[in-house]
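Task: encode each sequence below as structure tokens.

Item 1
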Amino acid sequence: MKIKDITQFLEELAPSNYQESYDNSGLIVGDPNKEVHKALISLDCTEAVVEDAIEKGCDIIISHHPIVFSGMKRFNGKNYVERTIIKAIKHDIALYAIHTNLDNIAGGVSSKMADKLGLENQAILRPKAGLLKKLVVYVPRTHVEEVRNALFEAGAGAIGDYDECSYNTVGYGTFRPLEGANPAIGAVGSQERVEETKIEVIFPVQRERKILVSMLAAHPYEEVAYHIISLDNSLSSVGSGAIGNLKTPMREEEFLAFLKEQFQLQVIRHTSLSGKPIKRVALCGGAGGFLLNDAKRSGADIFITADYKYHEFFDAEEEIVIADIGHFESEQFTQELLLEVITKKFANFAVLLTEIDTNPIKYYS
């Protein structure tokens, strides 16, 4: 198997255009056409993790956090980032990161947290906008089914739990082929009037090229009349955080003890308790403070995330309980998630979890 076989699968699962603007998900080190035989999964990519990969005979490391976030001008080993890159290149180990694009999908990082707490009726806490487009194309009556099916097969017309969605309007089109044209219908110099159907379908932006290629291949016209519209609609299956309900409400102290046990936490930093039962739970793996207002609007009783600063705890305003469980701790099950999806897809490919604890934060008790 080649590196690109793995990366293409992961980018189908969590498309690269789902990542945030500051992120650097994707293949950071390595040749996409290189053969690989064993992968190591880790939350972070560090020198110790590369050493672990060397010892285990792994030729690719798949991490959640990218080792490189911004541009680098020198590689002289002056910091852990440069040393990690140098060691990986020296030992021909590919580095791949799947970060905020994995955060931003249903079934991703926050969903895995919700699963660990047994939350029901899960949904994205803040759906992401700007990821959908609409294609409008005009097709002669004789080829409507052929073109429409080609669009569906290429990934257009999927909305939530439905697929093959389209809107069709019957009308007629006019055109006059000029010198040099090779019309499928009509003759050069004569105006034609043809019964046509206007097909409208919605599609995710990353499938645009494939959809257009399929449409043009199925369409009989030499010059196809179509246009594409960018949509502001949010995509319900893509976005930040997760929200869900406990099967049975718990007292706040009881829920915090349950959270501590399920996530094997040493400590939970939290705001004052309200004395109300916990039923609805909002979560975000990593630094999720930007979602606090979304958690409030969703009716959550508690918001579980990480990396809260002192003054930010005041923003709870006694409307919700904020629980900071730590960055590593909130994302620790991401490794398990990646192991599950990769081994399910590539049953005969060796995938291992690193034995290195990459959490840079330690607790003294």
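Item 2
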Amino acid sequence: MSNEAWETLSNQAVGFCGILYFLALVAHLWQWASLRKVPVATASRVAVGAGAGRSPRRTADAWTEAEVADAAGEDTRRRVAMGERLGIMLTVLAAGAHFVALLGRGLAAEPARVPWGNMYEFTLSGSFFVTLTYLVLLKKFRLGWLGPIVTGFVVTVLMVDVIWLYQPVAPLTEALNSYWLVIHVVSAVIATAAFTLGGFTSILFLLKERAERKAKAAVPAGDVDPVDGAEAPVVRGYLARVPDLVGLDRLTYRLHAFAFPVWTFAVLITGPIWAHEAWSRYWNWDPKEVWAFITWVVYAAYLHARATAGFKGRNAAILALIGLATLWFNFIGINFFSTSSMHSYA
């Protein structure tokens, strides 16, 4: 195939994977909408994450989606199961098409290269790794409830990437023509993907905490669950079907604990080594370098506070989101607000 044919294939694959991601989003929304007919007292008991126990009393963190659907009948159970399977299957297919888009982009260059030559390609790769990380962790941490958010996020990012960031295929700049590109970028995008998922869970934590606080204030004292006498559910809708606050907080910490050493390797080890190879200096006070270090400091503070002071809950979620804001500002914002960055290609 010619370079032009590979570039065309890449562009078509981007469009195709965008359609698949959108269909996966619709399937997940259908899955959750199917549970709207379940009585609230039962619907609030959807599985809440890895490690949910099984107890005779069936507390709010011990029910699976299948058990909840059972309470509403065979038709609902079938729709919920079908929506979940369809959403995951479409996400897997979309990730495959996404990978083809990256592969075609790299093979379209002369000579063939890794698909990390400009902001369009970096964004295409970053969104792919968000999906890949979600799929890898899906079964281990029972992240099916995160499907609508991940697919919606990736669809949005791809739209922005195609409409505003697209650039034709071109050879790598001299600074990028190094094997350190692969080492540095792979570690950076893996960390970015995990931090992004951690940001999603932090947002959900804050939303669910607020919803529970408001709902508890509206529930009369002594109101009980008509099924087993437990306290009446305080959260409705989608938030009732995500992990409880303890589960969300624990999952957020695990994602950040994984991502931080990977980000450290990318920012404080491979980045300076590559900078010295390309520009003869380990540190250049470039805006991208400075903001990458700021991101490292914020996440270091987050993990240090959690490890030493029991820093959990709402304050921890807010600090995690501050870290995510610095991360994405460094990734995209610097390109629009700085004219002096030597990393303007990324």
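Check on item 2: The chain has one domain: 3-337. Residues 3-337 form one domain.
End of task.
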